[in-house]
Amino acid sequence: MRLLTVGLTPHRQEFLPPSWELMKGHKAIILEEPPDPYFSKVVKGEISIHAYLEKIEAGFPEYTRRNLEFLSKLYQKGKILCQVEPYLERWLIIREMLDSGVPRVEVQNIPDLAEVYQAEHETFGKLLDYYAAMQGPFDTLVEKIKAFAQADAKRITLRDKMRAQEIISLLHRLPEDMSVYVEAGYIHLKLVYFLAKEKGKLFRLKVENLLLKALKTRGFNGVLPSPGDGLTSYYLFGGKHRNISEDLLAARSIVYIKLIEKEELAPTPEEPFPHLKNELFWRLFVWLLSYEDCKVLDKFIRLLPTPKAREMAKKLFPEAHKKAASLADKAAL
To answer: For residues 172 and 178, what is the distance between their CA atoms, to the nearest angstrom?
Structure first.
């Protein structure tokens, strides 16, 4: 029976090496991205990676560049590379149609596009509501971020369901003994759920959570999700898997996003996981804050740049900052 490995990972440079190790052990690699006609030209060496990066306007260019270099080597060694992300594929079609002047009512009534259009429309609408509430009271902001997380959870569920269906369809077309690696962002736990329902005699499913592995090697036992991911997961699984209120998760997510590093960080021999180190410290910090603490902190940092917001957080809650530092030190972060 074929092996199907799902690698759950943050899309950060620091997680590329462990992802690559898993990819090397499989014959076919299913990437978490919509099909692009220029992708095959890149891995075949027909166009440069630089030209491709300019074309796609990559959000994290160094991550994408390094990954493409490695994928090109895998292709030259005979690995099969597949881009499978039907939700995003449909969303790109929708955007192209709208940009070309096709009326929205016509687009949203196309059967193959309707679900994706509705999911994006609803989620983006909730995000705009959240941004519009940035000038309002904290309690209103909490309600808006909860509404966005609920819509996002529905969108992720649809995306994972569609991707699982297409992966299963692809497996039927591949040789029965061909091992397959599936790349997936760590929030896409529903993908594992949908694949597990279909495995039967078609494949043996293995899940590799690279984030948990990285935490364990650094002495941190257990998972500590970002408050935003925790809130989304709360809705992904019906709000029954966590003994914590959604309001508190929402409040912590609002201040957390102001404190973490936003720029792409490159790993070094001295610090192989710079993003993980930064984000886990601030997760530990906000996990020590109550709802009212978050409300107070938000009042002072909402309009501040990240460096100033961090200074204010330390000033207002020195004990929480000190304890987070102590916990991080014990976990070798």
So the answer is: 11
For 323, the domain range is: 227-330
Query: Which DSSP string corresponds to 233-249?
Result: HHHHTTT-S-SS-HHHH
Q: Same structural domain for residues 71 and 177?
A: yes
Give the whole-angstrom CA distance, residue 197 versus residue 111: 25
Could you tell me if residue 122 is inside a domain?
yes
Q: Work out how many domains the chain is built from and give that number.
A: 3
Q: Which residues in 64-94 are b (16+ Cβ under 10 Å) and which e?
A: bebbbeebbebbeeebebebbbbbbbbbebb
Tens-digit pLDDT profile for residues 126-182:
999 999 999 999 999 999 999 999 999 999 999 999 999 999 999 999 998 899 999
Bridge partners (DSSP) listed for residue 31: 83
Reported pTM: 0.92
Domain final residue, candidates 217, 243, 263: 217
**Tokens 């972060």 found at:** 333
Instruction: Answer yes or no: is 242 within a domain.
Output: yes
Query: Within this chain, do residues 204 and 65 fall inside the same structural domain, yes or no?
Result: yes
16 occurs within a structural domain: yes
Give the DSSP letter of residue 264: P
Cβ contacts of 108 within 8 Å, gap of 6 or more: 114, 117, 118, 121
Which residue from 238, 253, 257 is spatially nearest to 154, judged by alpha carbons? 238
DSSP, residue by residue, 4-61: EEEEEE-SSGGGHHHHHHHHHT-SEEEESS---HHHHHHHTTSS-HHHHHHHHT-SSH
What single DSSP character describes residue 135? Answer: G
**Pair (164, 148) in one structural domain:** no
